[in-house]
Amino acid sequence: xxxxxxxxxxxxxxxxxxxxxxKAGYQVTGFDLSPESYETAARNGIFVSASAVEAVKExxxxxxxxxxxxxxxxxxxxxIAAVAPGTLLIDCSTIDVESARQAHSLAKTASCLSLDAxxxxxxxxxxxxxxxxxxGGANEAFTRGEAVLQKMGKRIVHCGDAGAGxxxxxxxxxxxxxxxxxxxxxxxxxxxxxxxxxxLFDVASTSSGQCWSINTYCPVPGPVPTSPANxxxxxxxxxxxxxxxxxxxxxxxxxxxxxxxxxxxAAELYERFAALGHGGDDFxxxxxxxxxxx
Length: 294
Ligand code: NAD
Description:
The chain is α/β, with parallel strands linked by helices. It contains 13 helices and 9 strands. The chain has a 6-stranded parallel β-sheet, with helices on both faces. A 3-stranded mixed β-sheet has the order 7-8-9.
């Protein structure tokens, strides 16, 4: 049973993650509402089922990779009636902390083990099997799930109990949204002051301004040749996904009574950027919006 995985949600992330499990020797049965993914899945050795319930029959481990909390809860509600007690359910989607905790409760009612295990690393990391997993759930569930997660990622961090993985993910991405907005503003200011992109990069990337948003993902073309700025701001990490994560962080902050004014401002900037039709651009394209002073 432990070598049989059901994978629900074979989209941009789930498809390559499931393919890596096949490569690692797991027997993977997949399901997705959209038949678009079926051909690629079958080519990668995934058995495609007619329904989620069908896919989880005989699986010892179930992985879901879906758009949002409501999808995860509806799929898990359907699944828990069909899985054997003791099955390990792992949700890798990025969803709100409250829904993640509800999913854990659902699993408990069916005597199943569960983990929330959102990822960072994007579609490139999903394909290369180099994702970082931020994991929440009981020690027993983590011990059992670690091996399968290692086949899809290179760093697996147990962050705490139910929901802790999602909490870590949205806090990390709130930092990312804020730092990217700050780095974009600094380059726009530098331009107005007559400073070259390279000069600002050379100083800030080796001084106290250094961070991933400048050192690895610099939002202007030139200093970091692999950053999306050199490729017409094609994602990468789409602005719509950054907005989704910033909204999740703001919802969580509201519910927990945390004051996150910088996060709120970053969410508002990305909301305006996406509303102008740039949701599909890489999130570092925010610099163009800031430069134009919209
Ligand atoms: P996607 O839209 O490509 O894939 C989601 C898949 O879920 C789709 O194929 C859809 O048909 C399927 N689906 C929806 N409802 C379903 C249901 N009820 N039953 C079965 N299948 C269903 O999205 P993605 O880019 O793969 O992202 C998945 C999750 O990973 C999201 O929560 C996203 O925020 C997170 N994430 C994405 C990235 C990224 O770079 N794309 C990075 C980190 C995290």
